[in-house]
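Kindly review both lines to help learners:
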Amino acid sequence: MKHRNQMALAAALVFVAATASAQSTGHSMNHNHGAAGHGPMMGQGMGRGPVGMLTKQDANSSTDMGIVMNLVHDNTKIRRTVTRLPDGIKTVTESDDPKIAQDIKAHVASMSGRLAEGKEFNIFSTTLPVIFDNAKNIKSVVEFTAKGAVVTRTSADAKVAAALQAHATEVTELVNEGRVAFHRGLDSRMSMGSGGPRSAMTPGTATHNH
C-alpha cells in the first residue's frame, strides 16, 4: 500500500511538473487571472493535479490553488518585503498590475479565513502544519491596500513565531523565483513520501494548544 501511494504521488508530481513547464513556454492554459487563470488544476476537478497533492481538500481548494498558480506565474510583477518582529512577522505584498493586486488580496483573505477555520491549505510546506495547529495562539492583523496587502502575524509561543518567520521566507522564495521555487517545493514533497509535510517535521515542532 505504501508503495502504491508513492507511485500515485510520483505520477501526480510528474503531471504537475509537465503542466507548469508547458505554462512557462506558453503552450498550455489561458492567461486569465483569478480562479480560471494559470492553475494547472483548472478543468480537472477535485483531487487531481496540485489540488490532489494538498494535505487536505475542500470545496474551495481548486479556486485557491488557481490563485496561487496565478501568483507563481506572475511572480516578477510582485514586490514583497518582510520585517521580522521579535514574535512574528510583518509582510507587505503588492503589485502595480490591478489583476495581480486583486489576486494578492484574494489569496490573503482566503488564507486568513482558512487559518481562522483550521482549514489547512498545503502541498509541501513544513511550517504550515505548525501554524495551523496553533492558529488560536496567533494574532493576525490584515490591512488591504490599493495594490495588495499588509499582514502582521505574531505569537507569544516562540516555536510558532519561528514558524511564521520561516513560512514568510518560503513565500518570499516563491515571489522571487516563481516556478523554480515551486518545482523545488514539488521535489521536496516527493522526498516526503505519502506522509507529506507532517511526516517531514522534526519531533516536537507541532504543538496542539487549541
